[in-house]
Amino acid sequence: MQFVYEGPADRLRAAVDVAPAAIDDVTVEVGSRRVRIAVDCDGDVAERTVTPLPPGLAFGDDRQARYNNGVLTVSIETES
Predict the structure, then answer these.
(1) Phi, psi (5° rounding) for residue 43?
(2) Residues 62, 24: Cα–Cα separation, whole Å
(3) Residue 63: what are its φ and ψ, rounded to 5°?
(4) Contact in structure between 61 and 11 (CB atoms under 8 Å)
(5) Residue 42 pLDDT level (bands cut at 50, 70, 90)
(6) With bands split at pLDDT 50, 70 and 90, how would you rate the model's confidence at 41?
(7) Which domain does 9 fall in, by range?
(8) Can you tell me the distance from the alpha carbon of 25 to that of 57, in angstroms, rounded to the nearest whole number?
(9) What is the CATH number of the domain that holds 54?
(10) Could you tell me the sign of the dihedral formed by the alpha carbons of 50, 53, 54, 55, in that order?
(11) How many domains does the chain have?
(12) Which of 72, 22, 15 is nearest to 6 (CA)?
C-alpha cells in the first residue's frame, strides 16, 4: 500500500496491490480525515485504516477508485 500526497493538485492518491481479490471483495471507506481499505480473500479480511493528511487538511467530495489487473488506485480531493 502506497500513499502519496500531491499538494499542488490538492489530492491524495493511494495504490494497493489487492491481487488475487476481485473488485467485489474490496471495500474503500473515506471519512473526513481517514481512509479504510479492506480486502476479503477466501473469508480472511485484511484491512488498513490510515490518517495520512497533514494537520489542517480534510478530504473533499471528489473521490475516485479504479481497479485494474489486481491493483486498486484511489484518488481523493483534499481541502483546507
Answers:
(1) 90, -15
(2) 22
(3) -135, 135
(4) no
(5) confident
(6) confident
(7) 2-79
(8) 30
(9) 2.60.40.790
(10) negative
(11) 1
(12) 15
SS3 31: coil
Cα–Cα distances in angstroms (integers) from residue 1 to residues 8, 33, 56, 79, in the given order: 22, 17, 24, 23
- CA torsion 23→25→30→31, rounded to 10°? 160
Residue reference for cell 487538511: 57
DSSP sequence for 34-76: -EEEEEEETTEEEEEEE--PPTT-EEEEEEEEEEETTEEEEEE
Assign 28 a pLDDT band (cuts: 50, 70, 90): very high
Query: Taking CA 30 as the corner, what is the angle to CA 72 and CA 41, rounded to the nearest 5 degrees?
Result: 45
Neighbouring-strand partners of residue 24: none
Place of cell 484511489: 74
